[in-house]
Amino acid sequence: MKKEILIAIIIGFILGLVITFGIWTANKSLQENSKTQKTEVSETQPVVTEISPEEGQIPLIISSPENNALVNQEKIEIIGQTTAQATVIILYEEGEEVFQADEKGEFSQEITLVGGANEIKITAFDAEGNEANKNLNLVYSSVEI
Amino acid sequence: MKKKIVIPLMLTVAFLLLAIGVKAASPSPATDSAVQEIRDKVKEIVQEKIKDTQQGQKAGFFGEISKITDSALTLQTNQGDKELQIATDAAIIKSGKKSTLEDLETGSFAIAMGYLEDTNLLNTKRLVVGKKTELAIREVAFGQVTDISSEEEILTIKNEKKSLIYTIEINSKTVITKEVDGKATKVKFGDIVKGDKLVAIGAPSENEHKIITAKIIRIISEATATPEATPTP
After folding, report:
1. What is the pTM of this model?
2. Chain B interface mutation, best of A135, A137, A140, highest count of B Cβ atoms under 10 Å
3. Nearest CA in chain A to B21
């Protein structure tokens, strides 16, 4: 009787193992197939950059003006959003501005442009030293096109 | 005899249940690819919408001319190459004078104004070629004050995140501020203490450390005062 029970346990165990192994193998091969399909798709479609802050970085969005905008006013408002209370620095052709974003992380700062090409660098730091950078290229011209 | 059948059967069922559990716990590849497909579609639609919104908008590119053809130019900008389609009625100005495409040379700095055809393609209506205004290089440094030389008016700050040490030189023109009641308030060099976190903006140079001759210093957060030890009786 004892011998029969032992044989039954062994048979049951082996069967269970075989089934588990079968399902695991099937799952693995399906996942590999799906990965290959995804790679093929990403090769044919344009890559979209995810806007997610990396380690040591904070978010920084400039909502106005748009990059490469052609503006006809000397003074322009830089509007954006970052981490709450972050220190924002704007380096522009004629000077620098340092200020703090509000409790929602929103900020707005007027700067003066020079005629023609303007390279504007915007940096934000939180209290821990995590930072974000954005570059804006603006062209200021009063000539109508 | 019954027991002989029941025991292996029970064990088999138990392992079958285990196997089903393993399968359920692992993510289904079919669901994964469906989610990815939806994501890709959304990205595609967003890109299309952005493109539609941008198209026809007034825009300007500037950079160095890297290629000239009959009616097109390539500008090498700090944001990559930009293509300029020169309109037949485009005004081309070189060194303040009216000019033509034939007079342009690669390597010249140009500012193009026109209407966006695509993110990197501009239907150019006005092209101004001339010298680029070279501006003083400035750097922004963040760090915590680790050392202060009051005599020389030099600060040493450390940026832990970048593992960088900056030497900040202060002169009579340096403006030092901190936020008080939501307003930037001027403070003196002597008000800076070890442990303060600050941002310095100025002209960079380098020896074994980065050196910044500060134009602006903004104290972001002040050093937390360490509580004095209570004297024991």
Report:
1. 0.71
2. A137
3. A20
